[in-house]
């Protein structure tokens, strides 16, 4: 199934806009696993088991595996998601961005090695750094547009004199993704939940693209304002929460606590739907 | 030793501005190794053995290892470089760019796991996506500024209305790297060899930063014009060639052929020094 269809189906089936971000930090694991980098995959798998009927997607962040030499655990984790939640798409958060020949290698890594359904990408190097991913039929790619971190302003909020209408850089990225770059309807955008008015702005420019919205939960984004700004019946929003769910409890009940937190966030998001 | 000192020392010792990019593609290997992803590290190690006295740096591109599940081979390759060429710095070409907490993980991957001396980064997410790397004392970080690929124009060449003097986006990045972002003198810039006049422009803005300049060789950049535009006595330029050297011969003499090509390129670069 194509990524976008898969996303719509998961949204429908689980009644959810919530994406659980898998950013495992061994030092924050419950006592029985704490500090044990060989059990990263196991920790995440228990979170998946507890939330598989509550989410629109899972988003493993590859850095948290790579720092611990745990690529094999990431492979097995994604295979586990396939088994227990075959209807839930996996977005590999990697934010790659490189020239065409290298992008081809990264696309193989994301889609063939890990079997992800979509990937996050940086648009900084332009269209030929994005195109190789689009050659993987049915796969999705979310371009960084307006990110939720403090430094997101540094470049993304600069106004471009050289483009008609003098858009901000992130608005220009949104236009490119909605228009000329989106060859086969595979693109989406990453827009931080910390800036609901900018989600609204991106939505006006890119009405049909799926939006991946990190920053709810530990990062402090307003879940309700996020949904009001971004929700469209036909273009899913994927609202990510990582730490607030993964580390909802530091005890042995961490998976149940994650489920409760995920249920709460899912309901909060649903209540905000216009 | 700090990265910048290491770079200067290697430049001096090997009389070189040439960086050999390690972008191994098994399908392009000589017949005895062709298509064998378990011998990626071995192929690269033979290139290193043949060129260790000719280069200012090595630049392994992580995507070419990750696509083949060959992170362990990359670890061993960098350890091999340490052994046969302890004076030559290793720049891990990864072009990472993510929020602070994730950047910390990527920095651990690059500097602790792989033991690289420097890394390439994307500036798209702003200063707090760069800062965690700078906390690793003595390590270097090259920010993408003006890249050598066709799509490099798409964002990097946009003129910014909101900044004094209306710089292009890549000029703005160069200013940030030369100035406020360069807390401890660890930053450098990536500027493609395909645009010598833009190297000149970056040099005017960032006179003291090391420049990593890909695009010579297979990508067609003009080596002589590159050196004329970028060379400074105190701020090394690191001129990268990958494919032209790695695949100089498709026969069993590939390492010797790589050496000849590296010698030729080193001499060409040296001859262009003002």
TrEMBL record, chains A, B:
Keyword Lyase: yes
Active site: 95 (proton donor)
Pathway the protein contributes to: Pyrimidine metabolism; UMP biosynthesis via de novo pathway; UMP from orotate: step 2/2
GO molecular function: orotidine-5'-phosphate decarboxylase activity
GO biological-process terms attached to the record: 'de novo' pyrimidine nucleobase biosynthetic process; 'de novo' UMP biosynthetic process
Boundaries of every Orotidine 5'-phosphate decarboxylase domain copy: 17-258
Catalyzed reaction equations: orotidine 5'-phosphate + H(+) = UMP + CO2
Residue intervals passing through the bilayer: none
Top-rank taxon, per record: Bacteria
Listed EC numbers: 4.1.1.23
HAMAP family on file: OMPdecase_type2
Stated name of the protein: Orotidine 5'-phosphate decarboxylase
Native source species: Ramlibacter henchirensis
Lineage: Bacteria, Pseudomonadati, Pseudomonadota, Betaproteobacteria, Burkholderiales
């Amino acid at each position: 199934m194509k990524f976008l269809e898969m996303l719509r189906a998961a949204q429908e089936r689980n009644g959810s806009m919530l994406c659980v971000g898998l950013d495992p930090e061994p030092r924050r694991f419950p006592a029985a696993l704490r500090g044990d980098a060989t059990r990263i995959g196991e920790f995440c798998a228990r979170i998946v088991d507890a939330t598989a009927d509550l989410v629109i997607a899972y988003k493993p962040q590859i850095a948290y595996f790579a720092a611990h030499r745990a690529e094999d655990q990431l492979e097995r984790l994604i295979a586990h998601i396939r088994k227990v939640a075959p209807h839930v798409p996996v977005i590999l958060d990697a934010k790659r961005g490189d020239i065409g020949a290298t992008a081809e290698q990264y696309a193989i890594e994301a889609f063939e090695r890990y079997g992800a359904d979509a990937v996050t990408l940086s648009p900084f190097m332009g269209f030929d750094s994005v195109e190789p991913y689009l050659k993987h039929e049915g796969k999705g790619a979310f371009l960084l547009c307006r990110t939720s971190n403090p430094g997101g302003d540094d470049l993304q909020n600069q106004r471009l004199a050289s483009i008609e209408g003098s858009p901000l850089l992130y608005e220009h990225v949104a236009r490119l993704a909605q228009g000329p770059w989106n060859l086969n309807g595979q693109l989406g955008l990453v827009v931080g939940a910390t800036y609901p008015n900018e989600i609204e702005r991106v939505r006006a420019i890119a009405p049909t693209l799926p939006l991946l919205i990190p920053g709810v939960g530990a990062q402090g984004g307003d879940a309700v304002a996020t949904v009001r700004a971004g929700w469209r019946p036909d273009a899913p929003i994927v609202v990510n929460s990582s730490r607030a769910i993964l580390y909802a409890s530091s005890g042995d009940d961490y998976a149940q606590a994650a489920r409760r937190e995920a249920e709460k966030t899912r309901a909060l998001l649903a209540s905000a739907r216009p």
